[in-house]
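TICKET: design request
STATUS: open
ATTACHED STRUCTURE:
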């Protein structure tokens, strides 16, 4: 039986935390900032934790 391979695209985008969660960069941060408020731009900086509904799917991709 061959070994599982990690999904490399997911490994580059998501980082696993110590408690088993996943953190990633926010969406809507690449362009068109003139349509966003200063508060929205400020809150989109940095990283955020992944929603628990999609956590299982992406955890399997990273642990293979």
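STATUS: resolved
RESOLUTION: sequence designed for all positions
ATTACHED SEQUENCE:
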């Amino acid at each position: 039986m061959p070994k599982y391979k990690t999904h490399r695209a997911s490994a580059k985008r998501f980082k696993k935390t110590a408690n088993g969660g996943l953190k990633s960069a926010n969406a809507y941060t690449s362009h068109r900032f003139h349509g966003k408020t200063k508060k929205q731009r400020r809150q989109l900086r940095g990283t955020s934790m992944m929603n628990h509904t999609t956590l299982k799917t992406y955890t399997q991709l990273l642990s293979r």
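CLOSING REMARK: The chain has three helices and three strands. The helical segments are 8-13, 38-43, 52-63.
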